[in-house]
Design brief:
This protein is an alpha/beta fold and 223 residues long. It has two domains: 129 residues, D-Maltodextrin-Binding Protein, domain 2, CATH 3.40.190; 60 residues, no CATH class. 38% of the residues lie in helices and 11% in strands. The chain has eight helices and seven strands. The chain is elongated and about 65 Å long.
Length: 223
């Protein structure tokens, strides 16, 4: 592959232009037209997800049908190891060609100068506001892979047994959880990531929930 240096994007759909920049392919061409065979490695923790990982990868492979000179390869990295592994690989000049990552890692990777500008890839494409986070210092370095919808998951029979309501704020969540637990000892009524190896993901989830209710971590006097 001739452009191993020109890699690192936030979304697999940008693969054509991320490598095309290095090969001199214009925006209206594809790898199939270029005639050069290319192998792209895609890093994502979701390849390991039960059922979803298989279906996501099957969708990715559709790209090969319209670009037969491109071969896609997985780099499946467990979520708990993803950030450390990717930063280590990229710092050594190795790693995947494309990576699906959370915003926190994305900005660190961007600051380190590992990302290829994708402005040409989205020229003339109407992107929604969720893609604005992929622009760093005026350059588009990534596009949205997905935007997760959050929901509180609860066990209705357990909640009903404790005569607990479905909470709408933190105080109600604590009160309902205590009531449900007291009525059904040993049974989980509400679920969320709860192990230390999930702390990073949990905090990210919690921040989204908290920000949605207007929370700020600092007051107006903080510098």
């Amino acid at each position: 592959m001739t452009s191993r240096i020109l890699r690192r994007t936030l979304m697999a759909a940008a693969a054509t232009v991320a490598i095309g920049v290095g090969l001199g392919i214009t925006a209206d061409q594809s790898y199939a037209q270029s005639g050069e065979k290319v192998t792209l490695k895609l890093a994502n923790s979701q390849w390991l997800d039960a059922l979803r990982g298989k279906n996501l990868w099957a969708a990715m492979l559709k790209y090969q049908e319209v670009n037969p000179n491109v071969t896609l390869e997985q780099e499946a990295i467990p979520s708990a190891e993803f950030n450390d592994k990717l930063t280590t690989e990229m710092g050594a000049g190795q790693g995947p060609d494309l990576a699906m990552m959370q915003e926190g890692l994305f900005y660190s990777i961007a600051d380190a100068g590992f990302l290829v500008p994708l402005d040409a890839a989205v020229d003339g494409v109407k992107l929604n506001k969720t893609n604005d986070n992929g622009i760093v210092e005026g350059k588009r370095l990534g596009v949205g892979w997905q935007r997760a919808v959050y929901a509180l998951i609860y066990n209705k029979p357990v909640v009903d047994a404790g005569k607990a309501g479905v909470p709408t704020d933190i105080d109600q969540l604590i009160a309902s959880a205590k009531a449900a637990s007291a009525a059904t000892p040993g049974v989980i009524g509400f679920t969320e990531r709860h192990q230390m190896n999930d702390f990073g993901g949990w905090f990210m989830d919690f921040q989204n929930w908290a920000y949605g209710y207007g929370v700020n971590w600092v007051d107006a006097d903080a510098s």
